[in-house]
Amino acid sequence: MRRKEEQRENMSKAKEKSVRKRSGEEEQEEEIFSFSSKQPAEEEEEGGEGGGRRGGRRICPTARTACSPAWRILGVTVRRRRRRREEEEEGDVKSGDEEETAQQGAPSVLKEQEEEGGEKEDEYENDTSDEEDIRNTVGNVPMEWYRDFPHLGYDLDGRKIYKPIRSQDELDHFLDKMENPDYWRTVHDKQTGSDITLSEEQVALVRRLQSGRFGDVDFNEYQPTVEYFSRDVMLHPVTNRPADKRSFIPSLIEKEKVSKLVHAIKMGWIKPRRVEDDSRGRYYDLWASEDSSILARHKMHLPAPKIPLPGHQESYNPPPEFLFNEEERALWEQQDAADRKLPFVPRKFSSLRSVPAFPRFVHERFERCLDLYLCPRQRKMRVNVDPEDLIPKLPKPRDLQPFPTTQSLVYRGHSGLIRSISVSPTGQWLASGSDDGSVRFWEVCSSRCLKTVQVGGAVRSVTWNPNTAVCLLAVALDSRVLLLSPSLADRQVVSASELLLSDKEGAEPVQGAESLVTWSEAEGEELNEGIRLKIQHPKAVHQVAWHAKGDYLASVMPDHSSHLQVLIHQVSRRRSQNPFRRNKGLVQRVSFHPLRPYFFVATQRSVRIYNLLKQEMTKKLQANAKWISSMAVHPGGDHVICGSYDCRLSWFDLDLSTKPYRMLRHHKKAVRGVAYHRFYPLFASASDDGSVIVCHGTVYNDLLQNPLIVPVKVLRGHAVSQDLGVLDVTFHPSQPWVFSSGADATIRLYT
Amino acid sequence: MGGLQKKKFERGSATNYITRNKARKKLQLSLPDFRRLCILKGIYPHEPKHKKKVNKGSTAPRTFYLLKDIRFLLHEPIVGKFRDYKVFVRKLRKAYGKSEWTSVERLRENKPTYKLDHIIKERYPTFIDALRDIDDALCMCFLFSTFARTGKCHVQTIQLCRRLTVEWMNYIITSRALRKVFLSIKGIYYQVEVMGQLITWLVPYQFAHDHPTDVDYRVMATFTELYTTLLGFVNFRLYHSLNLVYPPKLDGKAEAELKEEDEEGYAMNSESYSEKLSALGGSLARVVSAGEEEEAEVDQFPVEGEDMEKMEAREKEQKELEAQKRLFEGLKVFLNREVPRESLAFILRCFGAEVSWDKSVCIGSTFDVTDETITHQIVDRPNAEKQYINRYYIQPQWVYDCVNAKILLPVQDYFLGVTLPPHLSPFVEEKEGDYIPPEKLKIMALKRGEKSEEEEEEEEEGEGEEEEEDEDEDAEEDEDEEEEDVAEEMNLKKMEKQRSQGKSLSVKVTPGKVKAENPARLEQEEKAEEKRLAIMMMKKKEKYLYDKIMFGKKRKIREANKLAAKRKAHDDAEKVAKKKKAKKQ
Fold first, then answer.
1. Cα angle vertex A712, ends A707, A713, to 5°?
2. Which of A156, A712, B232, B297 has its Cα between 20 and 30 A from that of B325?
3. Which domain of life is it from (chain B) (predicted)?
């Protein structure tokens, strides 16, 4: 009995050791001893046993989980066997124990337990499981804590359990190792502090497990599985439990769900699965029936213009002239991308294989896409006219002859610019007034200067008396108007003119204007030179104009702020009068109507026509010009031309309108002088650009026919000095000749 | 004056236009959707004549659409689809957010799709309209078919584009409609004549694109969507007009030929078939297997009001065209692996040549390099190591130049290692006064049947220069005149000065020179002056127009002269270089 107890103790110790000792290598051993189906419980138990151990366990979790079902089965079989044995024991008490052990081998521990159980039935009666038999109730504390104590925990009664006396040093160890044949199967149990020698069976078990086999020798791992449940319907139910009530009534939750779905389908929230139609990529004859109903898109639709086709420059191997040279390349690089003529630089490649990809290809395509859908389209009417058709069909100048065509004579002698010229009504003499303070008389045909009169001031204007019966010249300089009798005619004529000027004794001042103007006769030297009368004005006189009959003389004194701008003098009676009471603008030019008692006054922007008899204004012509420089009246009296400083020449038809009938912009610079021919349908204009333009201007008697204006000749010759070109122009009274005077101190005759 | 006061901007042009934002709101679409709709329907903005009036007095820059256009869009069924799609995206996002995978799947299955057939029909009521507008479609499809299969757009789109372009090319080959080709630095231009419509498209060179970042591929994809539909329908119709099977199938004969070859390289049968089609090697199957080359002679009807000359000219043109169609007939061409295979095969087959290539380049090669009957081999490398005597080794430009010249050009200019003659654009049609490069003159002379001798060439050049000089003369004449005048004047002035200074004139009688008066020239002068005077009398508006036209003309002449001068300088420099070389030798 004593021996048995010892044995039991030993066994229990071994068991405890196997439970507690769980270093990585010994894990399997532990499993061997605890044929436990209660692994989770065990684990819980071990939960508090410190991190180190846990870590050790975790090293091979897969191995453990893999094994666990097998263990469980094992446990079941063991239990069964035990039960059977118990039954057997009931039959023949404690008889065939030894044979069994020999048979089983593996659970030798159990056998011993059984043996014990046989004796102490009270203790193990209800022990269905293989719960560990823990003698050392040390608890969950590491065994190191007992290292320095002589005991190892306490037994159930609270007495210390002493460590077995071990006084082995290294040498003893060694000797033991050398001498003890069972040393290799001796294991130290930390829990109890004793050494345990494993039996043959135990070693065999360890070996089996190490080699990965089942612990049980008899266990056949390949035996056919017995399925508890199969697909065959069994005759008898597994349980006898009647079916629940809820299995007969439909589920409320499901009903709710279904009704929701039904509602959603009804409302169209959920669509039934679409029938797959593969007609998307299928083509057919779309234009099988070409009906014209949709042909009529609205008129505004414009098809997109096509991309312009490439030229030679775009070739991979263009002719050399299309390649850029240095400057063109530099220019191309400088220019903004929008301004460039070509969007790329032409390049030449020696062979097709060396042509690279065009880097902007995708860009260009994309830009085209943008153009197609973002650009407003507009129909641009391209003018497809022959430029020749635009040129107006005018009669040929050749058919409109005669007119001056070539420069034939140049009159030189003046040293200053010649502001004014005038041809005598006979057409034999030409008078010119210059800034050098002289008036010269020229013979027209020979260009000889017959006479020079020094008048002592810059001459602004000279005018021959249009009356052929007298030979008089009016000269305007500074604030004086001189009347010259140059005695360049028959004696009769000269005497007639002398008479006109001299017999004025009876005349007495009548008008109030008289006080402004003083008439005086020239004396001495001046008389010899031909100056007969001097009319002293209050202000500088710019122009003088004769009446057609030759008795009246108008003088212009431009002044912004005065109503005294125009004076009309009667030579025969030496009388002067101021016709206007009010200032109507800066007067530029005046002129008498050639036939009727009308008086033309050109102010800065308009021409006013006054009736001298009725003493009222009859017409106001609006010249669409900024500043009128000159004016001429047609010998018929129904047409007026005005030259202006803004390069224009306006032709007024008095019967037509107060607006210009035609604006001519032939000159490049300011128009200085205009003139009509007395007989021929010609007029000329002189300009600062150094040219005289002669135009044909036929006036028809028929009121319905508008005047025909054709430029016929551009006459050049004058040099431009100080931005002044031709200053005055006048026609010969009988010949189609034109005279012009310029800033280069010459007078030229064109015939 | 009773009556209601008229309100501003309630009639007239203000009511005909609508701003973009308003249109968008009216259609209840987002801006991208609106844009897509505009692209698909071909609606574009309009520029009103009086912007301020339309803009209700404001001058802010706005985009205007015609109100009619927008009303027209209102009835478009696709607008509804767009809205559906918007809802679909919203639902899908929501389902994703909630991780409801079943509903994601369900939504995916019910993804709204739309078809563009009716839009195509509406935009192009007749087939000719569609053909007229197919340039852009072709350009775009050819571009997309060269894209990589990954990245910028759906693989299906790329594959579809590829399929459609191959179909198109096959049709062109069968109908022999190709007219002009041009190798530019951008790509290769082709011009075909289909049903009387000239259609031009551009194919990029076969390189990977480096996709720019500032391009909106969504816009391009929308265009492509429309264009693929259009091109598909056009292809269908064109194939049926030639009694070809659509989708295209290779002819039985050609197929048998191709069958012999190994097909291990292509795993899928369908894939290999499409590759074979795209190799452009074989002829296509017909619905009715008609006898080959059976074309009814077209009867000629004299058009009223057309004289014999015109008719003859037309006949001649017709003959030329027929000749051009058979340009390469009888040639057997082998393409080396470094030349652009697809382009060359396309062109050569279009004009009746037999083409083949190395087996490893592409499926569908019909004969080998070693074939003795090959007449031309197209090579683009400095020299070929192994040459056969009975064939020409030429550079690819020869093919393109021949097509443009409509004759077989002499091959010696295109041999290996030879400096190629310039490649000219066939699209430039020189009018009078335009600059014509000498190479073109040469080709024209060749066509007329003259021998291309260097001398002749030079003569022609000389003529050209003379013409230019004539033009110059016109301009210079006036100046000459003036100069003469000035000279005379100077003389006179001198004399007069002397006279006026009171010097005794050194009287000298010199023999007078008889001025040779050229009556023709005089007349010309007179005319020129007449013209100048008439120009003076022009009205302001007409004058402006006239000046503009004349300015354009002058600029053209100047440019032509500049090009000619550049060419001359270049030629001179080359001559000098040649001489130097000769001297050295």
1. 145
2. B232
3. Eukaryota
- How many angstroms away from the CA of A258 is the closest CA of chain B? 15
Q: Which of A403, A392, A416 is nearest to A715 (CA)?
A: A403
Please check whether residue B561 is in contact with residue B468, taking contact to mean a CB–CB distance below 8 angstroms. yes
CB atoms within 10 A of CB B121: 17
**pTM listed for this prediction:** 0.65
For B298-362, give the DSSP string.
PPP-PPTT--HHHHHHHHHHHHHHHHHHTTTTT-EEEE-TTS-HHHHHHHHHHTT-EEEE-TTTS
Which residue in A270, A321, A711 is closest to B536 by CB distance? A711
Examine the predicted complex and report whether its ipTM is higher than 0.90: no
Please answer yes or no on whether B496 and A387 come within 8 Å at the CB atom: no
- Looking at CA atoms only, how far is residue B14 from chain A in angstroms? 16
Report how far residue B5's alpha carbon sits from residue B12's, in angstroms, rounded to the nearest whole number: 16
Distance CA A440, CA A459 (A): 11
- Fold for the domain defined by B326-448: Rossmann fold (3.40.50)
DSSP class of residue B56 equals T
**B contact residues 154-173, partner A, Cβ 8 Å cutoff:** 160
pLDDT tens digits for range B68-117: 889 988 988 999 999 999 999 999 999 999 999 988 998 888 888 888 99
pLDDT digits (tens, 9 = 90+) for B136-190: 999 999 999 999 887 778 888 999 999 999 999 999 999 999 999 999 999 999 9
For chain B, the domains span 13-75, 81-114, 117-249, 326-448, 480-567
Token readout for A664 is 């001519």
B340 vs B352: CA distance, rounded Å: 18
Residues of chain B contacting A692 with CB distance shorter than 8 Å: none
What's the gap in Å between the CA of A679 and the closest CA on chain B? 23
Say if the Cβ atoms of B422 and A363 lie within 8 Å.
no
Q: In a mutagenesis test of the B interface, which of A312, A399, A668, A715 is the best target, namely the one with the most B β-carbons within 10 Å? A: A312
CB of A354 within 8 Å of any CB in chain B?
no
Q: Do A280 and B115 touch (CB under 8 A)?
A: yes
Residue B422 in contact with partner chain A when CB distance is under 8 A? yes
